Amino acid sequence: MRLKDKAALVTGATAGLGQSIAEAFAREGAAVLVTGRDAARGEAVVEGIRSSGGRARFRRLDVTAEEEVEAAVAATVDEWGRLDVVVNNAGYYGPASMRPLAELPVAEWDRVIQVNLRGPFLVCRAAIPAMIRQGGGAIVSIASIRAIHCSHNLPAYTASKAALIQMTKSIALDYGAQNIRANAILPGVHDTPGGQQSYTDREEYLRRIASLTPLGRIGHPSGIAYAAVFLASDEAAYITGATLVVDGGRIAGEYRPHRSGPSTRRA
Predict the structure, then answer these.
(1) What pLDDT score was predicted for residue 208?
(2) Partners of 31 in the beta sheet?
(3) Which mean pLDDT values do the consecutive 10-residue runs of the chain (267 residues) have?
(4) Which residues are catalytic?
(5) What are phi and psi of 133, to 5 degrees?
(6) Nearest 5 degrees, angle CA 247-CA 116-CA 233?
(7) How far apart, in whole angstroms, are the C-alpha atoms of residue 197 and residue 182?
(8) What is the three-class DSSP state of 255?
(9) For a tag on the chain, would you pick the N or C end, based on fewer CB atoms within 10 A?
(10) Is the alpha carbon torsion for 74, 194, 27, 213 positive or negative?
(11) DSSP 3-state assignment of 10?
């Protein structure tokens, strides 16, 4: 129960990494506001948490809409009397944004930046005053290894995630005196629906990612979830402004695949 008596707001929590984070937070004792744009999936996540004895509510949220964000923060405080943890997980990239910069539609650039950068800005801007009033809190932002290890054909995504890291560090500097900690997690490729967008064959996808990873396997969302649990917990009380890479060693340096071939086991 590492998050016992804490209240958390998790964005993009209706599937993938966000769902895993919300479920892990609830298992560790937190009350969780599950947010996202798909009400049916969100309610299903909440039902799963409650059936396991956890506390959760769902609220529909578009992180790019200022009034909705402010209302979600207020709803967390109204429901549980406090807001201890915010996880900025909602993110976006799609086939239309996976192209070189000169071929990228302006509208697609704007959409990526709106979700991946404006969203966390609005969430933090609304949450920080509530955290100050109660004496502190923790912000965990889900960035990407692509923020520090660039990739072909992802100019908007890589730019947004790099900026998210710097915004996180800025919060750590500006609000440390108010006992607010801010850290970023940099996931590698994990076994989520969003990660498979450029592959039509799942097994090919798993083999490809495993072949690029020193640990020889793709990551499981629970690895990110428990990294977030740690950074949100009192165990990380002296950690702020940090970036935690969770990628199976993929960006540690030059890597040659194992001779025996990659494994398709998940982390």
Answers:
(1) 83
(2) 7, 55
(3) 97 97 98 98 98 98 98 98 98 93 97 98 98 98 94 93 98 98 95 64 81 89 97 98 95 67 48
(4) 157
(5) -60, -30
(6) 55
(7) 30
(8) coil
(9) N
(10) negative
(11) strand
* Matching residue, tokens 């059936």: 51
CB 17 within 8 A of CB 224: yes
Query: Which alpha helices (H) appear in the chain, and where do they start and end?
Result: 16-27, 39-51, 66-80, 106-113, 119-134, 155-175, 202-211, 221-232
CB neighbour burial string for 141-161, b if at least 16 within 10 angstroms, e if fewer: bbbbbbbeeeeeebbbbbbbb
Residue 113, token pair as written in the block: 């930046």
Two tokens, residue 106: 């302006």
Segment holding 33, helix H or strand E: strand 31-36
DSSP string, 199-252: -S-HHHHHHHHHHT-TTSSBB-HHHHHHHHHHHHSGGGTT--S-EEEESTTTTS
pTM: 0.92
Of 98, 191, 195, 186, nearest to 145 by C-alpha is 186
Yes or no: say if 64 and 116 are a contact pair by the CB < 8 Å rule: no
Place of tokens 């890291």: 165
CATH of domain 7-200+220-246: 3.40.50.720
Contacts (Cβ under 8 Å, ≥6 apart) of 139: 85, 86, 88, 124, 127, 168, 171, 180, 181, 182, 183
Q: Which of 2, 23, 51, 1 is nearest to 10 (CA)?
A: 23
| Listed residue (33, 19, 3) closest to 224, CA to CA | 19
